[in-house]
Design brief:
4 copies of one chain form a homotetramer. Chain A has 142 residues and is an alpha+beta fold. Chain A is built from 4 helices and 6 strands, in the order E-H-H-E-E-E-E-E-H-H. Chain A has helices at 25-40, 45-51, 124-127, 129-138, and strands spanning 6-9, 54-65, 74-85, 88-97, 103-115, 120-122. In chain A, strands 1, 2, 3, 4, 5 and 6 form a 6-stranded antiparallel β-sheet that branches. In chain A, strand 3 (74-85) and strand 4 form a beta hairpin. Chain A starts with 5 loop residues before the first strand and ends with a helix. At the A-D interface, helix 1 and strand 2 of A face helix 1 and strand 2 of D. Strand 2 of chain A pairs antiparallel with strand 2 of chain D.
């Protein structure tokens, strides 16, 4: 499967008084790119969370800020599943400024799978094996 | 009942590259002050939304920006219910910079009452008469 | 000039515990659509704010919430300049859910023009006549 | 010096459709607690950024989500400087739900010092030795 990176233009409301995108917004961009990734692989997160009441909870976030992004610049976000076990998944992100290609951000998010109806963590492999297999086939050990 | 205004310090992440608080954040501050108001009158919004599955939906927001607020400044927010009918309520807000007293914002939000379980608007007067009476007694016709 | 509406997908982080997009985020979407509009007419806001140190400040926002938007839905945002004077401009917005076409939001923002270097409001007609003329030609009296 | 933890009430607009505070907001809370910490030690961040044009840039953020926080709950945030060199600083955070005392979050942010006027990283020890000494005296090696 040919996956496309996610393009995101930095918005004015995402800047802070330093004149660059505030660091918290990259967490939003990670989520947007992750959601786009799931859409591309054919299992939209909407389907996961709305039809199956299954949420991708967060356990860890680890990020490196490597360059500032300014209002109006576009970042290209590359996403990959880099670790997977029945009940846990690591997603990695690499963001570059589109025009110059300069890297501006690297990060990863570690997820668990949360059954909202029964209010408890579950094994994705058991509750949604179709999605688990999709992730498994795409997983690129870091 | 003696109601106290709500104090809110402007945060760094709320500024934009103009060097002042971004205009969208005042909508958050209106909500914070409205929530604080409900706590003060003895019917916390948590109780409304969690125990009764009743949300205060929004139909209108009208605001005037009258002065800029900078990082580290504190605003004093005065809240009042200024119109009330069985199914609708208007809340008004007046914000001043705490140190100088200069007015920086005036606004109002118009609300309907939304029953999340049955997914429909309801009359507050009918479903939560206790809260309706509280608002009624406090209502200051604008 | 043929202007295209702006498409915006509702993100997960924009929802609140009511299960719909939180009302403050529409203010962000208004800004995104306004920025896109300026790019389409050939005078990007980046150029305005970065090259000319000219910001579009806000004096008023008036909005009507007419329907809820859920995570994953796309809204189509139509933007128009609906009033213009040398020192002030009104921009109007109409948002529909893309799939159903149902209207979900109407709003307007009133702007002044702020010279960041001299820290004062200015007349756009005088300081950036090129941009003023662009807006003038597009202005659709409401 | 007796430093007090920072108390923060979770707001409605900070929740997402999972019914809990969205994970990106903890990054805001880290910042709020860091700003409060600097105020308590007698060198407010406002003074740093406004008088000295010195910003605390970010290089890394590493966080662990250990429990969900719901609307209306208050978190107690403990802050400590846990590493310091002339040009870099690590700040650590520990958040507990105030009522139960249950831990909900641990994190750290790594900072560099950015001179906005000359647009370059600088050594805090050289440009603001007064602040450097304050941090040095408080630094609790992790």
């Amino acid at each position: 499967m040919e996956l496309k990176p996610y393009y995101r233009k930095a918005q004015f409301y995402e800047t802070d008084q330093m004149g660059v995108v505030h660091h918290a917004n990259y967490i939003h961009w990670m989520e947007e790119a992750r959601v786009d990734y799931m859409q591309q692989i054919g299992f939209p997160y909407e389907r996961c969370t709305m039809e199956h009441s299954l949420d991708l909870g967060l356990t860890d976030i680890n990020v490196l800020y490597r360059g500032m992004v300014r209002f109006g610049q576009t970042v290209v976000i590359h996403v990959a599943v880099t670790a997977l076990s029945p009940a846990r998944m690591t997603v990695s992100y690499r963001m570059c400024e589109a025009e110059s290609g300069a890297i501006c951000f690297e990060g990863e998010s570690v997820h668990f799978f949360y059954d909202r109806v029964h209010d408890k963590p579950v094994a994705l492999k058991r509750v949604l094996p179709e999605l688990y297999t999709l992730f498994e086939n795409l997983c690129q050990k870091g």
